[in-house]
Design a protein that fits this description.
It is built from 12 helices and 14 strands. By secondary structure, the chain is an alpha/beta fold. Strands 3-2-1-4-7-8-12 form a 7-stranded parallel sheet, sandwiched between helices. Strands 9-11-13 form a 3-stranded mixed sheet. β1, α1 and β2 form a beta-alpha-beta unit. The longest helix is centred in the first third of the chain and has 22 residues. The protein binds nicotinamide-adenine-dinucleotide (NAD) and 2'deoxy-thymidine-5'-diphospho-alpha-D-glucose (DAU).
Length: 358
């Protein structure tokens, strides 16, 4: 029986990862969800598993060493999966400090506590592993049409968010290189799917379109992102934990590059094809909602992952094609209006108003 300590398990990818583990392994794993519940953390995402005896929620801050030490004393942790982070690029441009605190110092703290509890006289307890959930943004930006990010591509972050994630990766590398600490790093492209907070492109556009609000496209709308369905990411992380050699770094992505404006039009088209003819919300939805707004500062032009290594070593591949994934995602948001109402009340409104002025 493996015990997973999942940080940031109440966020978008973390909660999908926990649901994936519960679905795949049932009662044969223990899951400890460690989350400080920032604006992005939502325990409603985990309602379907919260009563299970093998699921434990612990409200704690990864920057707080004594809280983490208590958790490592309480649970015999086998795997640490570190999702907890400040994850939104636009917020990092406005307020970089919290990104350095959570993403850099939080990671170092978690590494150090894991190292302390897993150390033996001559190395580390067998079967223990730490996985750093990183991002393709640490590699910087590619030219319009050419090239891919490989694991050997030099790190060249541009935003405060990606700088903090690259710093965290370097701390993980330092612990691996200096102490032989058992870890892996995964660097994934843009995720989409259920439970994503509507500050990010896809849920923001779905939410705005359904409410007849403008669809704010940054710059010329031709920046490219490489989209991966979140469950495919969850599967990759678990494979790396269980099967990869420690010390290895894996890129995770689906060769699914799309310009932002294509994503927005696909969302409009899919909403119109999914909503029943007599649904009131249809009347709001049209291409006329698309509004070009001021570009993001330092906006990376294109991300594209080469997932060759994870395919070759671990036989991972993205199972969900984009047409299927976006339809599933849109249907999920249509079926979870209450969830959306809850997360867009309060803090979100202030954020939206100061960010967009629309
Ligand atoms: P998210 O913002 O939805 O969730 C982050 C979670 O971390 C929230 O539940 C929040 O409460 C928690 N958290 C924040 N600060 C914390 C702290 N100090 N202590 C404990 N918990 C804290 O993020 P996400 O989109 O699910 O991303 C998860 C991870 O995956 C991040 O590390 C991100 O960099 C990485 N990543 C995200 C994507 C993507 O497309 N979303 C792609 C590649 C990598
Ligand atoms: O590539 C992986 C990264 O993907 C993760 O590490 C980050 O945590 C995650 O937030 C995401 O970063 P992006 O900046 O690529 O995602 P976002 O959804 O914020 O934006 C996607 C693209 O859409 C980007 O080019 C900016 C653009 N955009 C975004 C928003 C929110 C718009 O044009 N309008 C918008 O309102």
């Amino acid at each position: 029986m493996k015990t997973y300590l999942v940080t940031g398990g109440a966020g978008f990818i973390g909660s999908n990862f926990i649901l994936y583990l519960m679905e795949k392994y049932g009662d044969s794993v223990e899951v400890v969800n460690v989350d400080s519940l920032t604006y992005a953390g939502n325990l409603k995402n985990l309602e379907s598993v919260e009563k299970r005896s093998n699921y434990h929620f612990e409200k704690a801050d990864v920057c707080n060493r004594s809280e983490l030490e208590e958790l490592f004393s309480k649970y015999d942790v086998d795997y640490v999966v570190h999702f907890a982070a400040e994850s939104h690029v636009d917020r990092s441009i406005r307020d970089p400090e919290i990104f350095a605190r959570t993403n850099v110092l939080g990671t170092m703290n978690l590494l150090d506590v894991s190292k302390k509890f897993w150390s033996t006289e001559d190395g580390f307890l067998p079967g223990k592993k730490y996985l750093q959930v990183s991002t393709d943004e640490v590699y910087g930006s590619l030219s319009e049409e050419e090239g891919y990010f490989y694991e050997t591509t030099p790190l060249d972050p541009h935003s405060p968010y990606s700088a903090s994630k690259a710093s965290a990766d370097f701390f993980v590398k330092a612990y691996m290189d200096t102490y032989g600490f058992p870890a892996n790093i995964t660097r994934c492209s843009n995720n989409y799917g259920p439970y994503q907070f509507p500050e990010k492109l896809i849920p923001l556009m779905i939410h705005n379109a359904l409410n007849g609000h403008k669809l704010p496209v940054y710059g010329d709308g031709k920046n490219v992102r490489d989209w991966l369905y979140v469950e495919d990411h969850a599967k990759a992380i678990d494979l790396v934990l269980r099967e990869a050699r420690t010390g290895e770094i894996y890129n995770v992505g689906g060769h699914n590059e799309k310009k932002n404006i294509e994503i927005v039009t696909i969302i409009i088209d899919t909403l119109l094809s999914v909503l029943p003819e007599d649904d009131n919300r249809r009347k709001h939805i049209s291409y006329d909602l698309i509004t070009y707004v001021e570009d993001r500062k330092g906006h990376d032009r294109r991300y594209a992952i080469a997932p060759d290594k994870i395919k070759k070593d671990l036989s991972w591949y993205p199972e969900t094609d984009f047409a299927t994934g976006i339809r599933k995602t849109i249907v999920w948001y249509l079926d979870h209006e209450e969830w959306m109402k809850q997360v867009t009340s309060g803090e979100y409104r202030n954020y939206y108003e100061t960010m967009y002025h629309l």
